């Protein structure tokens, strides 16, 4: 076989690629700045992907693939990087996707998070949600937030529940317990319930993927813990609706009341290709739970939350569309990205036309 897993991973690390895809019938593929690039070389055969898979996968995980059609795990590539691995069967053959997890945690400033987010890390209790589509950097943002708490708070026992563990946190000022689903604990809801008996101050729930996990996370936030979680939603209003609608109709009013009191903030994020150089830039919407937002959640008027975010700058709120315009003005992202990612494309188009008119007038005056 012409490929070794070690050489392929070395390539991913040296290029700074996000993912490595291994499939039968094509050469290995890396994802760099959101674009797929094929590695030069022959197409992989069924025995090639199996051999590459076996070089990094335990017998136990191979058994999982056979029984359930897939397995996910994390592993370290020496000191260079960690990878999150998904092994699966497709058309009867083995396929793999390896996501590189950077070793170095970014600061909140490097990620580009507004200052209001730092204040959330000192809250004594409540629920902070980081949301966005797959691959939008939620895990990185949360790991960086946990790292800040770890560095500055000596009153914090942090428990993370992940599937699989991605970033490894050393004990700094805080104490960090990291538990992996299917390795250290059977599932998310069980892990959250057990965490409550382990003297936690902060609980990170990798994914609020079902009703039971949501329920456990809300209870943990209600009982005096600061809980961080992620959801695959975009925007604060949709996030609140998604949680509420996960519950049976007769419980939804109760959940709205609970959310209106425990929710601290919803941070929605997207990663957008940079216009000025290779790479991607994060854009955010930040909703902070004010008395007004709390009343909208309680009264099932989430459709009005966007207007509260628009007028909530003094509380540290940021609209996604405002953030997009800022990045465009700084020359970081292209105009078409602003239009396609905007929540209100009509208003954004008007804004962009105003900016263009002002620029032309400025040029004439010059």
Largest sheet: 7 strands, mixed
The total count of strands amounts to 13
Query: In angstroms, what separates the terminal alpha carbons?
Result: 64 Å
Summarize model confidence as the mean pLDDT: 94
Radius of gyration: 22 Å
Which consecutive residue ranges, at least 5 long each, have pLDDT under 50?
none
How much beta, percentage-wise?
15-25%
How many alpha or pi helices? 15
Looking across the biggest beta sheet, what order are the strands in? 9-8-10-11-7-12-13
Describe the structure.
This protein is of the alpha/beta class and 366 residues long. It contains 15 helices and 13 strands. The strands form 2 sheets. The chain has a 7-stranded mixed sheet, sandwiched between helices. β2 (29-32) and β3 (35-38) form a beta hairpin. α9 (236-245) crosses α10, α13 runs antiparallel to α14 (335-341) and α14 packs antiparallel against α15 (345-365). The longest helix has 21 residues, at 345-365. The chain is globular, with a radius of gyration of 22 Å.
